[in-house]
Hints:
Strand order of the largest sheet of chain B: 1-3-4-5-2
Number of strands of chain A: 6
CATH topology of chain B: Thiol Ester Dehydrase, Chain A
CATH topology of the domain at 6-21 and 58-140 in chain A: Thiol Ester Dehydrase, Chain A
Oligomer: heterodimer
Order of helices and strands of chain A: EHHHEEEEE
Largest sheet of chain B: 5 strands, antiparallel
CATH superfamily of chain B: Hotdog Thioesterase
Distance between the termini of chain A: 14 Å
Largest sheet of chain A: 6 strands, antiparallel
Order of helices and strands of chain B: EHHHHEEEE
Radius of gyration of chain A: 16 Å
CATH architecture of chain B: Roll
Strand content of chain B: 25-35%
CATH class of the domain at 6-21 and 58-140 in chain A: Alpha Beta
CATH class of chain B: Alpha Beta
Radius of gyration of chain B: 17 Å
CATH superfamily of the domain at 6-21 and 58-140 in chain A: Hotdog Thioesterase
CATH architecture of the domain at 6-21 and 58-140 in chain A: Roll
Amino acid sequence: MGRPSFDAVSVGDTLPPRTFPIDRLSLVRYAGASGDFNVIHWNQRIARSVGLPDVIAHGMLTMATAARLVTDWAGDPAAVVDYGVRFTRPVVVPDDDRGAELEVAGVVSAKDDEARTVTVDLTATSVGEKVLGRAQAVVRLT
Amino acid sequence: MGVNPDISRRSYPPARVYEVGREKIAEFATAIGSTDPTHLDPEAARALGHPDVIAPPTFAIILAMRAESAVVQDPDAGIDYSRVVHGEQRFTHHRPIVAGDRLVATPSVDSVREAGGHGMVTTRVEITTESGEPVTTALSTIVVRGGS
């Protein structure tokens, strides 16, 4: 699986960037799985009535999707011992066959030799706009 | 009316015990587009040293949201839920959440502050086993939009 070892990872290393699709079905599925049925994530009429351009993705779906860059790289989702984000802009999900795209990139910004953890700074954008701020995952490597 | 600053540091009773099921973990993993075998296949999870399938890093939001509803619905808090936007989220995992866990999520309010005419409420949910073993700490900041 090619799991990265702590010693082989350096500050400045980049994680291969990826593009994740998010469509209306993704939102319905996430609503059901998470229990977050806020109507702005599935009802265009209400989303527009509160001033949004269209239905938007759950911030927590964006957060979860961005984490996949890190968990797939680490080879074990349990390696993520700390993960935090700010929700800066919504991911707008149009009702078409393509939906939205979330582009995620990551770079190792710190290493803790004692805890054997690395900090990964994540960038998540949709239609060229940053949708997450201060997105950081602390990953324990062996 | 803004958020009542007196709820800062207030603790609330835990939500009812949440039993983590394999199928719920698989459902959540699928919903976030993950095909990682540690979420789906107990043998694959055991091969990495886990006792059973493990939850994705943000799975704890299910428990955190349930527990936080005690804060949001506290009539004394003055939080208008129709004006609430999720501002920040953070999870600190003391150990992974594993299928079969029976978890207790206890909410409290870390801070209440004003910024730019909006109320910012940071809640903390401590997730432990029934015997008190720490599992996950979830910190959420919600923004209660001001104005009328």
